[in-house]
TrEMBL record:
A Pfam family recorded for this sequence: BPD_transp_1
Protein keywords: Cell membrane, Membrane, Transmembrane, Transmembrane helix, Transport
Organism per entry: Kitasatospora aburaviensis
InterPro entries xrefs: MetI-like, MetI-like_sf
Protein's UniProt keywords contain Heme: no
UniProt protein name: ABC transporter permease
Residues annotated as domain ABC transmembrane type-1: 90-271
Membrane topology listed for this record: Multi-pass membrane protein
């Protein structure tokens, strides 16, 4: 075969590879740009806050300042808090939030799929669920405190009621939005109701369910923190309440910062798990449209 023919045949194979490399390079550059912009925005905000506090444009007693907040966090890390080591407080709050999240997600998914598949159950329980959803769930925290005491059970209950409803409604809608052609084809192949639910409905509703998981863990943290704030023996919510009781604004912001870091780490883990489970989904183009 002539050399020119061999080179010409190799060119079409090399072109897709070069396009793939170009897309990967563009995506990598965009991630770097986005992360750089995020860091720049954060540093600008913290710098402006510090400057305004030092020049007393804002009252540092009420608004504190980033340097004091970091000093408070470092003190908690090195010397612990009045309630015990900082790691123990974080672990206690995470235990309550994770327990409430798991229970709320499990109940929301099971009931959402069940009511989405069985119209009779949806017609019977629908009004009750709507009424319960209309109740401001934060106000239930004092009731749970009376029922279950100062221990973790009252905080877990608060987290459960905050997590349950967004997961339930997403699972319910996901079960209702399943492509009827898929269900019909499964029945033609001999699938009964159980197989249709397990092999068609639940996989199709997984995207809806995962969408609610990102939001619901934040709700679980809110439930645990609110319960601890009202009454507890340990936890980050108790740190917030203790700092507020002593007019320690830096302590309040320090606890909020720790909560934000915990929430971001958890969001990252959920995103990682979602990408692993949904590798078959096409990636976003990232063109900003």
């Amino acid at each position: 075969m002539p050399l020119e023919t061999t080179v010409a045949a190799a060119k079409p194979a090399a072109a897709p590879a070069s396009r793939t490399e170009a897309r990967e390079r563009a995506a990598r550059n965009r991630r770097l740009s986005v992360n750089g912009a995020r860091i720049a925005v954060l540093l600008a905000f913290l710098g402006l806050w510090e400057l305004c506090a030092r020049t007393e444009v804002v009252d540092p007693f009420n608004f504190s300042q980033p340097s004091r907040i970091w000093a408070q966090i470092w003190q908690w890390i090195t010397h612990g808090t009045a309630q015990g080591p900082l790691g123990e407080q974080i672990g206690y709050t995470l235990y309550e939030a994770l327990s409430g999240w798991v229970l709320g997600v499990t109940g929301g998914v099971l009931l959402g799929i069940a009511l989405g598949r069985i119209r009779f159950l949806a017609d019977v329980f629908g009004p009750y669920i709507k009424v319960l959803n209309a109740i401001p769930r934060i106000v239930l925290a004092p009731i749970f405190l009376i029922w279950f005491g100062l221990g973790p059970a009252s905080k877990i209950a608060s987290a459960v009621v905050l997590v349950f409803f967004p997961v339930f409604f997403n699972a319910f809608q996901g079960a209702r939005e399943v492509d009827r052609n898929l269900v019909a084809n499964a029945r033609i192949l001999g699938a009964d109701n159980r197989k249709v639910t397990l092999q068609v409905v639940i996989p199709a509703a997984t995207t809806w369910i995962f969408t609610s998981l990102h939001v619901s863990f934040g709700f679980a943290l809110i439930g645990a923190i609110v319960g601890e704030y009202i009454g507890a023996t340990k936890g980050l919510g108790l740190l917030v309440a203790a700092a507020q009781g002593t007019f320690n604004a830096a302590g309040v912001y320090a606890a909020m910062t720790i909560l934000a870091v915990v929430a971001l780490l958890t969001e990252g883990l959920l995103t990682f798990a979602e990408k692993k489970l949904f590798r078959w989904k096409p990636a976003d183009s990232g063109d900003g449209r």
